[in-house]
Amino acid sequence: MGQPTAWRAYVHIADALRQRLLDGTLSAGALLPSESALSAEFGVVRNTVRRALGALESEGLIETLPGRGRVVKVPGDDASPRLAYRRIAADLRGAIERGDHASGGQLPSESSLMTTYGVSRGTARQALAELATAGLVESIQGRGWFVRTR
């Protein structure tokens, strides 16, 4: 097969990456190479790579995890990473309502939430910010997140 034309390059890239998924070169849960690495490998600009990755994502073969990059989707795993902060917030809210975290007590750190849930710092912060907006927790500069005293 000859060099693809510029307007069809993304199809060639998507096909090549799809083949890597099928032959196991990229296994479930594996992190894909960065856009810049793929751009260099295929000799195209990043927008062309993004278009190819977008096609694979729309097919449900890969997903974008904020703060991590693009990963090969695990078959049968339909949990949306974009909603991970809501799951964390719901878990923390439940713990607060059950009394697992007393009024005025310190919550797990962002780093701890990152490790526990396998998410980025931004996702952990977003969960805590949602609870702050609901008036359940507050951030004390330099000390961490605490359950609001009632």
Write a structural description.
With 150 residues, the chain is mainly alpha-helical. It has helices at residues 9-22, 35-42, 46-58, 84-98, 110-117, 121-133, and strands spanning 62-65, 69-72, 137-140, 144-147. Helix 2 (35-42) crosses helix 3 (46-58), helix 4 (84-98) crosses helix 6 and helix 5 packs across helix 6. The protein starts with 8 loop residues before the first helix and ends with a strand.
Q: Rough shape? A: elongated
Distance between the termini: 69 Å
User: How many strands appear in the DSSP assignment?
Assistant: 4
Task: Please report the number of helical segments.
Answer: 6
Helix fraction by DSSP (H/I, runs of at least 4): 40-55%
Alpha carbon gyration radius: 20 Å
- Pick out the low-confidence regions: none
Based on helices, strands and strand pairing, what is the structural class? mainly alpha
How large is the share of residues in beta strands?
5-15%
Largest sheet: 2 strands, antiparallel
Strand order of the largest sheet: 1-2
User: Mean pLDDT, rounded to whole units?
Assistant: 85
Q: What pattern of helices and strands is seen along the backbone?
A: HHHEEHHHEE
